[in-house]
UniProtKB/TrEMBL annotation:
This is Competence/damage-inducible protein A. CDD domains: cinA (cd00885). Signal peptide: none annotated. Residues 4-162 form the MoaB/Mog domain. InterPro entries: CinA, MoaB/Mog-like_dom_sf, MoaB/Mog_dom. Pfam families: MoCF_biosynth.
Length: 232
């Protein structure tokens, strides 16, 4: 399963807010074997959000959009997602009933709070007020981290892929001197290889087979000045 993550908010683009939602979602999706192919930040603009959602919906199995939910002037994500599918926004009876069960009446909330894309599946907000929605394979979640996490928990089982196994080997050699051995590693084993220089070079080996990851790690460890191996 391939997925894309789209985070919405001018505050992310100017650096006022750290994009912890994207990091958290990528970690959870990776743990389920889902390959995240894109992480994109877009401004609070209907046309820009709709364009990206439309493109990613056509290209990937699932798209997760976070941020921009609610009744204020810059909360335009639902309108944008609806536009991406050529739909309008309409009052959602299920979302209205769910909020009523929590003690909110129409007088308590702006009308736009329960306006969702037509024919969507509403998602209750267990940690807040503004509901989310699923439109085909696009999941629209709040931007407030606690609300986003609680809502993702409701749909997490809908994301599944091939779990991978990761091993790391720390090597006390310059990265530039390891390139030929990295090439040989990829040729010999069915693995992905990443290298991250610091005080030592951390070689990250990812494979669908645990045994393959172990063999590849042993191979690189035997042919380098390896410091230590860690499970990741």
């Amino acid at each position: 399963m391939n997925a894309a993550v789209v985070t919405v908010g001018d505050e992310l683009l100017v650096g006022d807010t750290e994009n912890t939602n994207a990091t958290w979602l990528c970690d959870r999706l990776d743990a389920r074997g889902v390959a995240v192919r894109r992480v994109t930040v877009v401004p609070d603009e209907v046309a820009e959000i709709a364009r990206v959602v439309n493109e990613y919906h056509a290209e990937y199995d699932a798209v997760i959009v976070t941020g921009g939910l609610g009744p204020t002037h810059d909360d335009v994500t639902m309108e944008a997602v609806a536009a991406a599918f050529g739909r309008g926004l309409e009052a959602n009876a299920e979302a209205t009933a769910w909020l009523a069960d929590r003690g909110y009446s129409g007088d308590d909330l702006a009308a736009e709070t329960t306006h969702l894309p037509a024919d969507c599946r509403p998602l209750p907000n267990e940690a807040g007020v503004a509901p989310g929605a699923v439109v085909e394979s696009v999941y629209v979640l709040p931007g407030v981290p606690d609300e986003m996490k609680a809502m993702f928990d409701l749909v997490e089982d809908e994301f599944a892929g091939t779990p991978t196994h990761v091993l790391t080997v720390d090597v006390d050699e310059p990265e530039s001197e390891l390139l030929d051995r990295f090439a040989s590693l990829r040729e010999r084993f069915d693995v992905r290889v990443g290298s991250y220089p610091g005080e030592v070079v951390t070689v990250k080996i990812t494979a669908e087979s645990e045994a393959e990851a172990e063999r590849a790690a042993a191979w690189i460890r035997e042919r380098t000045d390896a410091v230590e191996e860690r499970s990741a």
